């Protein structure tokens, strides 16, 4: 059910444009841009790529699509003149209502990230950037307890560095990448960007193969 709703959220702007398009050149251009935005959103939800701006993309998607639709509509008006009244009464008005509803859903998504900011979450392994010469040998699928979620990664050297150097190099790289000291010798970094204010937390320790990293997410940035 959530997958269907997600697809509807992603494809609604393209469907609205299909109802109001009047010219070939502008129509194809706008359709291409809207399709690209939809693919980017779907790829984010299906974890094709990782970005800390996930919340902003999900909540701001209607705004981006709305601007594209507005520009497309103005371009067509310039080429074809005002829309005939018989079309305005049905297609244009219906599409405008759908776009407004779409924007409202985006606002709700943004507020949802704020309301659920204290809920535990499972950070993706991609949140842990690695310097050249280090790689993730293995990692757990992750699990969630009563008030936290966690996954463990094993980081090793591709150039034969001993575990102590792997651990020191990894900690130095994470500090340069924006992770700051936290409680219990952990490292903290905002999980999101502006809308999502939760924190990701990492514990880095030496292991027989290199470095062991426990990633967890359970709190909101203060």
Strand portion: 15-25%
Query: Based on DSSP secondary structure assignment, what is the total number of beta strands?
Result: 7
Helix content: 40-55%
Largest sheet: 7 strands, antiparallel
- Mean pLDDT figure: 89
Classify the secondary structure makeup into a structural class: alpha+beta
How do the SSEs run, as a string of H and E? HHHHEEEHEEEE
Rg calc = 23 Å
CA-to-CA gap between the ends?
34 Å
**What is the 3D shape?**
elongated
> What is the count of helical runs?
5
Number of domains: 2
Q: pLDDT below 50 for ≥5 consecutive residues: which ranges?
A: none
Q: Explain this structure to me?
A:
There is one protein chain. The chain is α+β, with helices and mostly antiparallel strands and 222 residues long. It is 51% helix and 19% strand. The chain folds into two domains: 114 residues, no CATH class; 96 residues, no CATH class. The protein has five helices and seven strands; from the N terminus they run ααααβββαββββ. Strands 1, 2, 3, 4, 5, 6 and 7 form a seven-stranded antiparallel sheet that branches. Strand 5 and strand 6 form a beta hairpin. It is elongated. The model has no long low-confidence stretch (mean pLDDT 89).
């Amino acid at each position: 059910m959530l997958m269907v709703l997600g697809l509807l959220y992603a494809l609604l702007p393209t469907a609205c444009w299909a109802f109001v398009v009047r010219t070939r050149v502008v129509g194809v251009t706008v359709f291409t841009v809207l399709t690209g935005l939809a693919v980017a959103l779907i790829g984010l939800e299906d974890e094709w790529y990782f970005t800390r701006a996930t919340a902003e993309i999900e909540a701001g998607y209607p705004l981006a699509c709305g601007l594209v639709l507005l520009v497309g509509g103005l371009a067509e008006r310039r080429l074809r003149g005002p829309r005939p009244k018989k079309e305005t009464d049905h297609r244009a008005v219906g599409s405008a209502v759908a776009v407004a509803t779409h924007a409202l859903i985006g606002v709700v998504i943004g507020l949802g990230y704020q309301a659920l900011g204290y809920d535990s979450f499972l950070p993706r392994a991609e949140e842990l950037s690695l310097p050249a010469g280090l790689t993730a040998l293995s990692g757990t699928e992750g699990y969630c307890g009563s008030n936290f979620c966690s996954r463990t990664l094993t980081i090793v050297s591709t150039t034969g560095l001993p575990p102590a150097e792997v651990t020191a190099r990894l900690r130095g790289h994470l500090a340069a990448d924006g992770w700051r000291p936290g409680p219990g010798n952990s490292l903290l970094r905002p999980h999101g960007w502006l809308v999502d204010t939760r924190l990701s937390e990492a514990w880095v320790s030496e292991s027989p193969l290199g470095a062991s990293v426990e990633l967890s997410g359970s709190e909101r940035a203060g």
